Amino acid sequence: MAEEFAPFGPLQGVKVLNLSQAIAGPFACAMLGDLGADVIGIENPKGRDTSRPNPALGGWGTQMDRRNSRSLCMDVRKGRGRELFFQLLKEADMLVEGFRGGQMEKWDMSDETLWEVNPRLVIVHISGFGQTGVPEYVTRASFDGIGQAFSGYMEMNGFPDRLPIPAFPQPSDYFTGLFGIVGGLAALNRAKETGKGESVDIAQYEAMIRCSGFYVMNYLNTGGLPVREGSHSTSSAGYGAYTCKDGVPLYILILGAGVVRNALKALDIDINQEPFYDGMGLCAMGTPAGDILEEKLAAFFAEHTGAEAEKILLDAGVPCSRIYTFADCDADPHYQARETFTTWKNAYDDGEIRGVNVIPKLKNNPGKISRGMPLVGQHNEEILHSLGVSDDEIAALYEAGTIRQEKTPIG
């Protein structure tokens, strides 16, 4: 029997098919599902998503990135599976796929072929290097770290006297997923007005370089390459991480005339005495002002615990925060007041799981978590019955290996 869920959120009535694995595509689809879209994750019977729970790894990220979705485990590349996939496409608003560039065309599923089935379909392609460009690049495999490395993003992270390090956790995947949402929803808005679909091409490395902001623009216009800064700005004093009396790290950013004024007052520095002056926007590293500020900060943090230093600086109007662990996040009253963490029921047993609540928060049409991560193929029968497939044919599809179903979260 099909599960019944009351419509909710601003995307109620929107149908999304997800052909992606790992993080970027499932994350994008989970965001859509959190806001009310009906998401069907179509998984490969011959290639289990390695991000799912398995005997070696808990697969906790997938518990969020496949929530608010149903699972159909079916080979869509050929035969009856392809026919049934095309039936689903007829009623879909959006398809999200996460293969290497050009893979859909190899399966004779080009944009044009899919638009013959559904002219209003929005197709979101998420790949490492895009659908066009140098052929040898388009077909390259990619993971988060590859996107960071190829985009120049990784080169900016770490300490200047050591190898670059990747930023965590997986910003390349999550940025790419967010760009997928932006492009997909923009295209969907237009498709609903015109009845004509769109193809959205998101390359992982381009998402990263778009988010490189000042640094890439500085290079393109001046030729200046960024320097790895480690845990402290190389240009501004009072901009970075400091260790407090109790060993707690705190991050502070003294930037802007008002903040500089507030910080100097809190540190008992006379802003009207050289080398300082009222209206100073920052204290540059290596200058007399910067040296004095760093010396005063070192003494200040040596005398105060993290909690004390944070309170003094915040009360003075200086942006700062202790560098939280997840345990600190969980205990913080603001996290609790905004219900940033929440609990939802598993889709496969009577247990519950804790995770991050629906983000962003909407006032008039809020999202919700209506179901947890499904087991692989958990909704095979429900979805295929909706297409008019009989129980006998479903049994034959299992026998042929066209569809598959797992009985536990780990397979």
Automatic annotation (TrEMBL):
<comment type="similarity">
    <text>Belongs to the CoA-transferase III family.</text>
</comment>
<keyword id="KW-0808">Transferase</keyword>
<protein>
    <submittedName>
        <fullName>Carnitine dehydratase</fullName>
    </submittedName>
</protein>
<dbReference type="InterPro" id="IPR003673">
    <property type="entry name" value="CoA-Trfase_fam_III"/>
</dbReference>
<dbReference type="InterPro" id="IPR050509">
    <property type="entry name" value="CoA-transferase_III"/>
</dbReference>
<dbReference type="GO" id="GO:0016740">
    <property type="term" value="F:transferase activity"/>
</dbReference>
<dbReference type="InterPro" id="IPR023606">
    <property type="entry name" value="CoA-Trfase_III_dom_1_sf"/>
</dbReference>
<dbReference type="InterPro" id="IPR044855">
    <property type="entry name" value="CoA-Trfase_III_dom3_sf"/>
</dbReference>
<dbReference type="Pfam" id="PF02515">
    <property type="entry name" value="CoA_transf_3"/>
</dbReference>
